[in-house]
Amino acid sequence: TWASHYGLPANPQGSREPAAANRGWDKTTGRYESDAQFTRRMTDDVQKVTAKIHEVAGKTPRAWVWPYGAASGSTLTIAKQQGYQ
Q: Region (Disordered) spans which residues (predicted)?
């Protein structure tokens, strides 16, 4: 990924979980990331890393490996929409 290999605050207790599979928790607002925010974050991530790989390798990648093996149904759908198998 471009930036989803890190952990992000994923609950009010401050636990850090894989960003690719979890909605972020914003302690300032006391809310979880919305579905739309999560989808936008993950879509941007997939697009950025895909563009970089294409720029460097001259080929568009087909396979995607999730950081730490962490993925959710939403992230799998996003990757498929971007052309990954």
A: 1-28
The pLDDT tens digits for 33-60 are 999 999 999 999 999 999 999 999 999 9
State phi, psi for 47 to the nearest 5 degrees: -65, -40
Residue 31 inside a domain? The answer is yes
Q: Which domain holds residue 30?
A: 7-81
Contacts of 80 (CB under 8 A, 6+ apart): none
Query: Of 23, 28, 29, 25, nearest to 12 (Cα)?
Result: 25
* Domain-located, residue 47: yes
* pTM for the structure as a whole: 0.82
